[in-house]
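Narrative summary of target 7.
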Amino acid sequence: MEDLFVKEEIEELRKQIAHHNELYYKKTQPEISDYEFDQLIKHFQYLEEKYPQYKIEESPTEKVGSDLAERAKIIPHKVRMYSLENAYSLEEVKSFLNKIAEKVGCFPKVSLEHKIDGFGINIFYDRGILQYATTRGDGFEGEVVTENVKTIKSISHQIKYKNPVEVRGEIFLPLKEFERINIEREKNEEKLFANPRNAAAGTIKIKDSTIVAGRNLNSIIYSVGFLENDLVQTQVQLLKFLKDNDFRVNEFTEFVSSFKDIEKYCNLWDKNRSELEVDIDGIVIKIDDFSLQKELGFTAKSPKWSIAYKFKAEEKETQLIDVKFQVGRTGAVTPVAKLKPVFISGSTVSNATLHNEDEIKRLDLKLGDFVTIIKSGEIIPKIIKVNHEKRPVDAQDIKFPTTCPVCDTVLKKEEDGAITYCNNINCPAQVQRRIQHFASREAVDIEGLGEVAVKQLLENDMISRIEDIYHIEFDKFQTLDRQGTKSAENLKAAIENSKTQKFHKLLFGLGIRFVGSRTSKILTNHFFDIEEMKNASYEDFLEIEEIGEKIAQSVYDFFRNEESLQTIQKLKEAGLNFYSEKIEKVNLLDGQKFLITGTLENYSRNEIKEEIEKYGGNIISAVSKNLDYLIVGPNPGSKVKKAQKIGTVKIISEEEFLEMIGK
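Modeled conformation, tokenized:
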């Protein structure tokens, strides 16, 4: 009988752990503290060890790369991670270095290294052992990604150097791996990664480190954050220190003392970058001497002793074969160019965006034309020019449709605008994309309800509107192609969890034209619930700071539409929260503008920003006459002096801010 109770307790604990992992990793809304979670795990482990007969193969304590390996958290960097100033011409680089030369009396010795187009990482070692790894974050603190970083073969778990040290570098996905992964994703009808950098960034944050290990990430380490002051005095010595401790450094780094050599190096790698295993988007130039680096110092955002020369986006010529027209969730009809496949910036592409009818006319583009494309950070490249001299004799005009290519509704062009719309709210293309948008991570975050699943549900008449998501027949869903019992269970849990999403994410998910995630926050900071918003006049919306005529009209019209109101009512009946968590304190900060500098004790940067917005305040990005309060923590930057110089900015401590909101 005792064993029966023990078995039931183990099964119950297993469910609890799965539940709290779901809340923590997928919803980022934990119900219990890390300490309480750890106690659950310890008790679970104790029972498994005492009663091994009830231990299952997929136990959360045994799973390789388990979510339990490391509950995501934020850790402050010991030394701030700055961004680099960019130069888009060699003349800008020359001007930057000449200013330094004037200051020190001679042209400085500099290091030249490839600017890897990857994902910044900070790794802390103590006693020679890797203690943790964090993302760049906001430069002051980053998200812990230790277990995933440990899967990267070029990053040592132990080093010779025994004192505390932070090393910094770039995580990247080799181009061959990027191509392989996107081919697999295309076969599985998954969204393609836009570029190797996005793929690396997405991979390093995956919660299952076994998936990360299978993607073969690599790294280049190029600097240190925290390190004993006198250990290295130059970039040359730093690279030797890194190599001596088995870090992979850039093998093509050079040290020069003339602008002519800098120019030669930059032009060489601009021409030959396609031969490398990794995407590089420029050259990083750093002063070699650390004492000179210290003398030059930093701006608010970047070091004054380093600059990044950015290459121009790669260009390739190919031929336009056809133009297809796509319908987005708001009804916007967008032309997409179908190209003769061409390899550019690490991947083979066959599509390019054409934006709208006016763009086609501006380019004087015809079917069969030879076009130059660039790919700069997007999946779909852009056509920048047409080679009219090579135009074929049989080139044909591109005819923009007058009716929707999906539902055949007559298209209308917006007044004083370039975009053509299908105004049929029930257009199948719009319905599919609206549902995908509602389920997206930025909205209510229903994992498992991506393009493939939504398409299946629509084709099998299991849903036809957003609100139908909450009435899916999961017995039927698990019989669909590529689905199953596990997929159905996961989707059911994700849909249930979506009911707890915040008001602003839910509002964003409704897909109101011109209302992005930031505008959704502004609106939900102003209105307590959806009823207030529904009853607001056009003038009420227009009175809100940062809401212009275009947005005000769009939101007002949305709440006059019967289909929109029906969707909201059905979602409310399904249990979704169309109200703000803010109560009487909502206007405590009454639109006042805040900025933060230094390290805070009670909040991370993101947490205090949320707190300020929660109580009706706004965050701005820089010190100006519009700033009301500067919250100052230990080790503040130059913002304090700037605020003092303005004279009207109130400089307060974290404790004083807490008093303002009654905490």
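Residues 329 and 430 are 4 Å apart (CA to CA).
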